[in-house]
């Protein structure tokens, strides 16, 4: 029995390999593998839909139990108390919510955020009396928390209960708060025009806080109310009580010296005698003032100079502009800036001529921009523009820029009808091309195509010789994909007997037809244009057009063998057409007269460039080189108007061209001249 009860231990197996394992396994690796193999699914509570009162009661009971468990485990967690109270408020159970807030205050009544939340709960649900009770408890328990007082006063102020707000301020002042709170009380009284009440508070303020800053605030208050004697009395009392204070030098009446004595003297003493006074004023500001005060002195001196200059010459608009820039550089100076602008625009030019009014009208423009951008007064801006337009004599001259600026202003104010009215008045009273363009551009953005056409009709009725107007009208029709309308507009335009820049309109018409792929129409247009003018540029552009079709044929090729052959034939045809144009041009310049030699040479240069652009397969440079002229440098006399002696005449050098067909006659003439020169030289030697 004894032998059977013995525990049989396993046999110890010796370790065969005591070397370290090449692969190490860490605890981090084991955790990562476990996480990767067993991905935990996030289990979410299914959404619950409440259908009757019983389910709602169960939901509320379950939620309350949850909140009670949380605050039971962590009683000092005020965040959970706030969530609990807000949830009860969301259930419209205000009694329970109020009970939760009071239980939270029993936990920590020194946390002012609980009092603020409790009072805001009462205010939010319009329990005003309850809110007053909460605020009373809060400020009585925590009188040094400024937020509670401010919130309490703000509530009474929003209710319009000024007397109650004043009583709260009085209760607060008994605790001798900081200077900012006293100033807040004074601002409150000043808002309701209670000047005497504010003065009494200042008296208590300087008694509670007898500092230099407090006395200076008191003196500034009296100065704002224009009580000079009271201000002086405040300074005297402050100096008497704070004579040993380190900041007592601030109590001296630098403001009264600056604003009253010096400025009065500078305004009443002539400029010739004021230089020394300005020097002393500047020294005074350097000693008693800061950088801003010194800048004010410099501005005052410049102001004095500008006043003298505009008084001597009120029509010097440059001086007015400099004066205005000075006033605009001073901060919080709107009234003075407006005054200078009004004085400047009162100097109307004496003559109704545009050259006199151009500079003057920029005063109005600057005035309107200042009111809009700096003063932000849109009604005043509109009034400035209205007065400016009323002042201009539109029957004699007008300024399209003014009308356009007024229209842009109305557009910035989202007043589309006002902008239309302004531009319509401009067209009716003093039509300008820029005004038409602006009006059409505005209607184009609005998508009113019929309005645009009517405006273009009025534009052309006013300026039928304007190539720009015809061109823009046609481009408008092209933009809205009305090709036939655009072509009709171009035809009407080039059919006008008089055009200011006809070449621009012809060029635009040709480019339009080229963009439409109507090459036969383009050729017809060039032929019609050549009937009117045989200018060199027309011939060259005609030939360049024919040459450009070669590259278009190359882009269209690339098919089968037959298509390639057709493409080659078409390219050769285009090259032949371009050469034919050049040959016609050369024939015209050759038969017209010898004065067009330079045009012939330039035409050959253009032809040579195009032949080179064709390449070796299609181009033939030898055609041009056979017609290439020789250049000779010659001299010719310069004749002035009036009798000039032949020996006193001046000469200039110029380049002449000898074309191949003229080479024989030129050689004969050269030999005759050479023989004559030798004979004259021989006679001179004898």
TrEMBL record:
What's in the GO CC field? post-mRNA release spliceosomal complex; precatalytic spliceosome; Prp19 complex; U2-type catalytic step 2 spliceosome
Q: Could you identify this protein by its name?
A: Pre-mRNA-splicing factor Syf1-like N-terminal HAT-repeats domain-containing protein
Gene3D superfamilies of this UniProt entry? Tetratricopeptide repeat domain
According to its UniProt entry, this protein's organism is Citrus clementina
Keyword match Nucleus = yes
**InterPro entries associated with the record:** HAT (IPR003107), HAT_Syf1-like_N (IPR055433), Syf1-like (IPR045075), TPR-like_helical_dom_sf (IPR011990)
A Pfam family (short name) is HAT_Syf1_CNRKL1_N
What is stated as this protein's family in its record? Belongs to the crooked-neck family.
Q: Which residues belong to any copy of the Pre-mRNA-splicing factor Syf1-like N-terminal HAT-repeats domain?
A: 67-210, 304-429
Cellular localisation: Nucleus
């Amino acid at each position: 029995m004894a032998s059977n009860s013995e525990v049989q231990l396993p046999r110890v197996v010796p370790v065969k390999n005591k070397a370290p394992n090449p692969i190490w396994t860490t605890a981090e690796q084991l955790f990562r593998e476990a996480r990767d193999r067993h991905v935990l699914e996030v289990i979410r509570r299914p959404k619950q839909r409440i259908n009757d009162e019983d389910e709602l009661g169960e939901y509320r009971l379950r939620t309350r139990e949850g909140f009670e468990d949380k605050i039971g485990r962590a009683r000092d967690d005020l965040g959970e108390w706030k969530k609990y109270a807000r949830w009860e408020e969301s259930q419209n159970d205000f009694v329970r919510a109020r009970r939760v807030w009071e239980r939270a205050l029993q936990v920590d009544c020194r946390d002012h955020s609980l009092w603020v939340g409790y009072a805001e709960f009462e205010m939010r649900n319009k329990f005003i009396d309850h809110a007053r009770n909460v605020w009373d408890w809060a400020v009585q328990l925590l009188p040094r928390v400024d937020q509670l007082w401010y919130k309490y006063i703000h509530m009474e102020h929003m209710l319009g209960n000024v007397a109650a707000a004043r009583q709260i301020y009085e209760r607060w002042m008994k605790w001798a708060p900081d200077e900012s709170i006293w100033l807040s009380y004074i601002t409150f009284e000043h808002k309701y025009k209670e000047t005497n009440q504010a003065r009494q508070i200042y008296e208590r303020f300087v008694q509670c806080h007898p500092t230099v800053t407090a006395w200076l605030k008191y003196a500034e208050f009296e100065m704002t109310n224009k009580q000079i004697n009271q201000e002086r009395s405040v300074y005297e009392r402050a100096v008497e009580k704070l004579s040993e204070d380190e900041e007592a030098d601030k109590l001296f009446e630098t403001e009264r010296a600056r604003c009253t004595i010096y400025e009065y003297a500078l305004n009443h003493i002539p400029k010739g005698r004021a230089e020394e006074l300005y020097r002393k004023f500047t020294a005074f500001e350097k000693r008693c003032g800061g950088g801003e005060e010194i800048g004010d002195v410099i501005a005052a001196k410049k102001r004095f100079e500008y006043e003298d200059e505009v008084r001597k010459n009120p029509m010097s608009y440059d001086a007015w502009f400099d004066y205005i820039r000075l006033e605009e550089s001073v901060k919080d100076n709107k009234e003075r800036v407006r005054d200078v602008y009004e004085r400047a625009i009162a100097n109307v030019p004496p003559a109704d001529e545009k050259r006199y009014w151009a500079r003057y009208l920029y005063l109005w423009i600057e005035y309107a921009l200042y009111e809009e951008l700096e003063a932000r007064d849109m009604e005043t801006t509109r009034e400035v523009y209205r007065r400016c337009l009323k002042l201009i004599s539109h029957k004699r001259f007008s300024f399209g820029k003014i009308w356009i600026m007024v229209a842009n202003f109305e557009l910035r104010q989202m007043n589309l009808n006002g902008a239309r009215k302004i531009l319509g008045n401009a067209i009716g009273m003093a039509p300008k091309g820029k005004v038409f363009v602006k009006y059409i551009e505005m209607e184009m953005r609005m998508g009113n195509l019929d309005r645009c056409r009517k405006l273009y009709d009025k534009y052309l009725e006013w300026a039928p010789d304007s190539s720009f107007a015809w061109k823009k009208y046609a481009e408008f029709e092209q933009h809205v994909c009305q090709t036939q309308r655009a072509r009709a507009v171009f035809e009407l335009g080039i059919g006008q007997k008089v055009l200011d820049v006809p070449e621009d309109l012809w060029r635009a018409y040709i480019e339009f037809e080229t963009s439409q792929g109507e090459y036969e129409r383009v050729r017809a247009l060039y032929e019609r244009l050549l009937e009117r003018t045989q200018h060199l540029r027309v011939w060259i552009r005609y030939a360049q057009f024919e040459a450009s079709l070669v590259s278009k044929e190359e882009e269209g090729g690339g098919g089968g063998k037959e298509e390639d052959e057709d493409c080659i034939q078409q390219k050769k045809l285009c090259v032949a057409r371009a050469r034919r144009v050049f040959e016609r041009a050369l024939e015209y310049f050759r038969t017209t007269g010898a004065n067009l030699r330079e045009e012939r040479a330039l035409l050959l240069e253009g032809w040579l460039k195009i032949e080179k652009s064709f390449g070796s397969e299609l181009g033939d440079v030898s055609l041009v080189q056979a017609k290439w002229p020789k250049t000779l440098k010659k001299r010719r006399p310069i004749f002035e108007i009036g009798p000039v002696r032949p020996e006193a005449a001046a000469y200039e050098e110029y380049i002449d061209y000898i074309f191949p067909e003229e080479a024989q006659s030129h050689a004969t003439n050269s030999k005759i001249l050479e023989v004559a020169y030798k004979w004259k030289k021989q006679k001179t030697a004898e």
